[in-house]
Design goal:
20% strand; Alpha-Beta Plaits; alpha/beta; 19 strands; 45% helix; single chain; 565 residues; binds magnesium ion; Rossmann fold; TIM Barrel; binds ligand C2E; eight-stranded mixed barrel; 23 helices; 3 domains
């Protein structure tokens, strides 16, 4: 909002929050006569209210306004969402000095003795507003999307302040220094970067990968990004790669054949330090190292992270070509009826036969595929392969069985999933009732209405729906009633010790009881011993799957377990 247009005044607005009416009066008068507009408030509630309503340029608040101390005061004021960049100066006495570090961590920008002469206060207020103005102009809708060369650049102190501010929201923070060369540098637009970060947040398989994000230009060729809410270290790696890709994208007005060099240096808190200056130094060292590579690259301050990122990048490249090179295979593991031990279903489990590294477990490469979006072609390939196999077995005269296919949460979120499944089944010519989709509990907890619609659509199509790894996720029982689910797969971690551990036995027993009560089919996965089978039979589980019957095997071997119809 443009404050000048709003009330006809372009003088900065100060919020003075002090319970002492005399102090409010004298300080207010002094600042007014120094050219500021002043809004006095007497308590914390009024202060928060005014902060939201008037969006002042600066807040002067007395520490005694909050009986729980300066840190709590900072927390409360910063909880007003409009106030995430407003400078806040705390007036305090000697008794409050020990709380400075904590209050700073909670977002208080600066501190002054409450007996400071009004003229000194005025001076501090003015310089604080001036130094924050250049940063403010970078934030959100107040950022000028126009000419890159005219945008204000943040200095080192401002940058440290931004880092401290982001750190006050979350202790896990990443600082990314981006340096681009030549003409490309001039096109390193904060807006474009911000859009890339938004996309990253949306497409991320995590629930809420990024917290507070600040994109701060530091020269025409350098931008620093500070983000909080980094859940796992590998997310920083992906983020850095995404930022680099975005910065290397062809920009308007830049010839396509212009040589591009983008280097990214990364440091993270708390691993690489917990002081803004230290984090900034580490990120700058890293970006200098990255810039020495031809074409630039991503470097982390942390060596282990560097090694990890190189290994991961090459694995990602390999995974991209794995589909084309026929390195993926599907193995099939039977599911049997617990009484007759006849095969009633198969589960398709993907494997990667890497030319150099040998067999790689899906537990390793599925997460990578999810992070890189490769899960879509891989998932589609598995679905087609499993359906083709089902079709072939039926044509060969085997009694039809359900074919289970695992769905990743990322696939589940694709809007045309229903259509993709419908089309695949009809093109291959498999009756939907022979397809079983294995979902996980977590998938059902997000966007409940959309999920419900999707599951209903699949159900209407005739597809069988299972919850895989049941008991490990949110285990909210209400969804079992609401969602049209056919089968619960008891997670193997409960089955493993079901005969020796009373807790596991109790969990398995109650899952079976509840599932049967809801008329669901119950299968136990990871059954390895006769005694597990016996107990599960006594508990009236319907089906089992596990090494006791057969591990996942190639299609030809799996066929020998099927019966002729
Ligand atoms: P899941 O769907 O729960 O599959 C069960 C896993 O347990 C499989 O591991 C299977 O080989 C293993 N297993 C089966 N019986 C036993 C047993 O008796 N004892 C023990 N210890 N393990 C047993 P796998 O094949 O390594 O797959 C691991 C996970 O990777 C799967 O868990 C699934 O979540 C995922 N996955 C596998 N294939 C695909 C796929 O095509 N798409 C997606 N999205 N995920 C897949
Ligand atoms: Mg499964
Ligand atoms: Mg499972």
């Amino acid at each position: 909002m443009d404050k000048a247009a709003h009330d006809g005044s372009d003088r900065p607005l100060l919020l003075i929050a002090d319970a002492d009416s005399h102090k409010r009066g004298t300080l207010g008068d002094a600042l007014r006569s120094a050219g500021f507009r002043v809004e006095p408030v007497a308590d914390l509630a009024a202060c928060m209210n005014a902060l939201k309503r008037t969006r002042p340029d600066l807040v002067l608040v007395d520490a005694s306004l909050c009986e729980h101390g300066g840190a709590e005061l900072g927390r409360r004021l910063r909880s007003v969402s409009e106030a995430d960049t407003t400078p806040i100066i705390m007036l305090m006495g000697h008794e409050d000095i020990s709380a400075i570090a904590e209050a700073r961590a909670e977002g208080i920008s600066d501190f002054m003795d409450r007996t400071t002469h009004p003229m000194l206060v005025e001076h501090r207020v003015r310089s604080t507003i001036e130094s924050s103005a250049s940063l403010l102009s970078l934030d959100g809708d107040e950022r000028d999307p126009g000419c890159a060369s005219q945008r204000p650049f943040a200095g080192r102190r401002e940058l440290e302040r931004v880092i401290a501010q982001v750190m006050s929201f979350d202790e896990r923070v990443a600082v990314l220094c981006i340096a681009a060369s030549g003409k490309l540098g001039a096109a390193l637009e904060p807006d474009a970067l911000q859009r890339a970060l938004d996309r990253f947040s949306e497409e991320s398989p995590q629930e809420s990968p990024l917290g507070m994000v600040r994109v701060v230009p530091t020269s025409s060729e350098d931008v620093t990004i500070v983000v909080s809410g980094i859940g796992r270290l590998q997310d920083v790696g992906r983020l850095a790669a995404c930022v680099r890709d975005s910065a290397s994208d062809p920009h308007e007005g830049l010839p396509d054949d212009e040589p591009r060099s983008v280097a990214v240096g990364v440091s993270t808190a708390p691993d690489d330090g917990s002081v803004p200056a230290e984090l900034l130094n580490h990120a700058r060292e890293a970006v200098s190292a990255a810039a020495r590579h031809e074409g630039g690259c991503v470097r982390f301050h942390d060596e282990a992270l560097n090694r990890w990122s190189v290994a991961r990048l090459s694995l990602e490249q390999d995974l991209r070509s794995a589909i084309a090179n026929d390195e993926l295979v599907v193995h099939y593991q039977p599911k049997v009826d617990i009484e007759s031990l006849r095969v009633v279903g198969m589960e398709a489990l993907v494997r990667w036969e890497h030319t150099q590294l040998g067999m790689i477990s899906p537990n390793q490469f599925i997460p990578l595929a999810e992070e890189t979006g490769l899960i879509h072609p891989i998932g589609q390939w598995v679905l087609e392969t499993a359906c083709n196999q089902t079709k072939r077995w039926q044509e060969q005269g085997f009694a039809p069985v359900r074919m289970g296919v695992n769905l990743s949460p990322v696939q589940f979120r694709q809007p045309d999933l229903l259509e993709v499944v419908r089309r695949t089944l009809s093109e291959i010519g498999v009756d939907p009732r022979w397809l079983e989709l294995e979902l996980t509990e977590g998938m059902l907890m997000h966007e409940v209405q959309a999920t419900l619609d999707c599951l209903r659509g699949l159900k209407q199509l005739g597809v069988h729906l299972s919850i895989d790894d049941f008991g490990t996720g949110y285990s909210s029982l209400s969804y079992l009633k609401r969602f049209p689910i056919d089968t619960l797969k008891i997670d193997q971690s409960f089955v493993r010790d079901v005969t020796g551990n009373a807790d596991d036995a109790a969990i398995v027993t109650s899952i079976i009881l509840m599932g049967r009560g809801l008329k669901l089919n119950i299968i136990a996965e990871g059954v390895e011993t006769e005694s597990q089978l016996e107990l599960l039979r006594v508990l009236r589980c319907n089906e089992i799957q596990g090494y006791l019957i057969s591990p996942p095997v190639p299609a030809e071997q799996a066929a020998s377990l099927l019966t002729r119809s």
